[in-house]
């Protein structure tokens, strides 16, 4: 299939798995009813909780998480492929009580066919005074993932990963024609950098970039930027929710555009070795 009907879900995820599923379910149903065959949700789709003790009280393994299980059932019921942008789950690593920030690709039979743990954790001190130390509660992953889909390779990233172009280039060279960037961007960084980074990663890789986002003022006190966006391989924004309210963003991906962009500027084949500056 050359044209892929997709939908990006923009959420304001609550602070518990049951409520989170109740929030996202009607949006996914709306997306499927609108014809989408590949549906993507944002980072932290299963809950958003800043407080570590409160988070640990609801934290489960991937197989036991309520929202993940019900989303798998929903994908099977609707007959769609569903990318859970990420779920916060127990990492399963002995001796490390930090969680994994894990993206899960679910096929139309409800099976998890690929997972990816966020590589780059968000440790920053913003000029506004916001301070984030994701490494205190999230164990970073250690490998990149390109998942197979009926439409081609899907590169899996999460939020802060967008600032690391080498990851996206590696995904494109490994066969990705689409790259998912599910996110919960802060307002100051979203306003300054969100669209610019998304467009840059699309141009550099010749991939479609699909970026579903958390949006608005959340129960746990944080505020996120929203503006879920689809960028084509030549860098043009082809669909966007220009607000921070929950909603569904539809787009049709013409995968021939990937071939055309890469033929016009074959940058993925032009790597050269070079000496590092001393």
From TrEMBL:
CDD domains documented for this protein: nit
Stored InterPro entries: C-N_Hydrolase, C-N_Hydrolase_sf, Nit1/2_C-N_Hydrolase, UPF0012_CS
Q: Where is the CN hydrolase domain?
A: 4-255
Gene Ontology molecular-function annotations: hydrolase activity, acting on carbon-nitrogen (but not peptide) bonds, in linear amides
Entry annotated with the keyword NADP: no
Q: Which UniProt keywords apply?
A: Hydrolase
Q: Which residues cross the membrane?
A: none
**Pfam families reported for this sequence:** CN_hydrolase
Q: Which family does it belong to?
A: Belongs to the carbon-nitrogen hydrolase superfamily. NIT1/NIT2 family.
Name the UniProt record assigns to this protein: Putative amidohydrolase
């Amino acid at each position: 299939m050359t044209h892929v009907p997709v939908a990006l879900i923009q959420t304001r995820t609550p602070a518990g798995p049951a409520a989170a599923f109740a929030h996202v379910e009607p949006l996914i149903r709306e997306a499927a009813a609108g014809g989408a065959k590949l549906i993507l949700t944002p980072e932290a789709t299963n809950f958003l909780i800043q407080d570590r003790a409160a988070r640990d009280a609801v934290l489960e393994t991937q197989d036991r998480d309520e929202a993940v299980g019900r989303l798998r059932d929903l994908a099977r019921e609707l007959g769609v492929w569903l990318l859970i942008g990420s779920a916060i789950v127990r990492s399963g690593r002995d001796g490390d009580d930090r969680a994994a920030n894990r993206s899960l690709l679910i096929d139309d039979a409800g099976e998890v066919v690929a997972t990816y743990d966020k590589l780059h954790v968000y440790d920053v001190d913003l000029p506004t005074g916001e301070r984030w130390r994701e490494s205190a509660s999230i164990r970073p992953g250690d490998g990149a993932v390109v998942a197979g889909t009926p439409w081609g390779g899907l590169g899996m990233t999460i939020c802060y990963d967008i600032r690391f172009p080498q990851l996206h280039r590696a995904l494109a060279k490994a066969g990705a024609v689409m790259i998912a960037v599910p996110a919960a961007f802060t307002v100051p960084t979203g306003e300054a950098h969100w669209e610019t980074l998304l467009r840059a990663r699309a141009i550099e890789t010749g991939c479609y970039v699909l970026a579903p986002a958390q949006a608005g003022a959340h129960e746990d006190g944080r505020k996120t930027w929203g503006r879920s966006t689809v960028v084509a391989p030549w860098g043009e924004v082809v669909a966007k929710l220009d607000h921070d309210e929950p909603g569904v963003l539809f787009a049709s991906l013409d995968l021939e555009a990937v071939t055309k962009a890469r033929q016009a500027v074959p940058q993925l084949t032009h790597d050269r070795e070079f000496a590092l500056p001393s």
